[in-house]
Amino acid sequence: MTDSSLFNSELEFQQQEELYQQLLSQTMGGIQTENPVSKSIRPEPGLCIKTVSEPSKEKVFVNICQSSSVPPPPEISREELVELLQSEDPSEFRVPMSLGMPHTEMDNSSQGCTAYDVVINQEFFQKCKNDPLFQQFVILVSVEGLENKYNLELNREWKVLKNRKFLGSLSTQDIRTKSKPVIQELHSQENADAAAKRPEFTLLVGPPVGPPEYLSAEIKLPGVTSSRSLVLDVGEDRLVLTARPSLYHLDIFHPFLINQESSVAQYNSSTQVLTVTMPVISS
């Protein structure tokens, strides 16, 4: 979400308001609501994974569900996936998913357990279902997503249940949607962003000791004389910056869940450095 407090610079208040309206129109389609636009979906069953939480050894079930309303990840071949898994940072490949709240269920032994629903794109789910490598990959990504969101530690020796597609009852989930921009950019702009330079940047986590409280991004933008040319979008785990016209383009993910509404940014035209400070909700 973009907020007027997100763009503090050398501009006077009136200029800041003008800049805010301009950036808001570009990033949010000129529509600003108190809460993110969302819609309810009812996922379809898929796979049920059985594991245990650490160190309590309590039973945990992960229902990996499918829905056409969840966007697919970027297209990737089996060879590319193998290469990705062997790389230093496999997390660069992002799988869009909706992580549901924990719900208490009963297993086959009438013992209490906890279940989580994870919803991924329907076509991508079918691809994972037909290829063991993709299946193990999406299970791992789902488990890590739940661990990060709910501060869990789940045992990696999971079991795919053969005769059960889900445990408990599947509930509707709210997923975020984005409205179409009022003024849409031409396709040529995509080529322009691709030709733009990736700026130098530094990510700093504070405080140095203890749980992370904030994430700070310092982005060097040589040649950018005013924040009027910057378009900034701060997501829950993503930061996208574009400097017009086709000067710089930065699109990065980070391993934190941050508070978008409380994030602030300041551009120093003297040093030509943009600083974005983002409070951390969880890591």
UniProtKB/TrEMBL annotation:
Domain PIH1D1/2/3 CS-like residues, every copy: 212-281
InterPro entries xrefs: PIH1/Kintoun_subfamily (IPR050734), PIH1_N (IPR012981), PIH1D1/2/3_CS-like (IPR041442)
Boundaries of every PIH1 N-terminal domain copy: 33-181
Biological processes per GO annotation: box C/D snoRNP assembly; rRNA processing
A GO term from the CC aspect: cytoplasm
Pfam assignment, any one: PIH1_CS
Job description of the protein: Involved in the assembly of C/D box small nucleolar ribonucleoprotein (snoRNP) particles. Recruits the SWI/SNF complex to the core promoter of rRNA genes and enhances pre-rRNA transcription. Mediates interaction of TELO2 with the R2TP complex which is necessary for the stability of MTOR and SMG1. Positively regulates the assembly and activity of the mTORC1 complex.
Protein family: Belongs to the PIH1 family.
Name of this protein: PIH1 domain-containing protein 1
Origin species: Takifugu bimaculatus
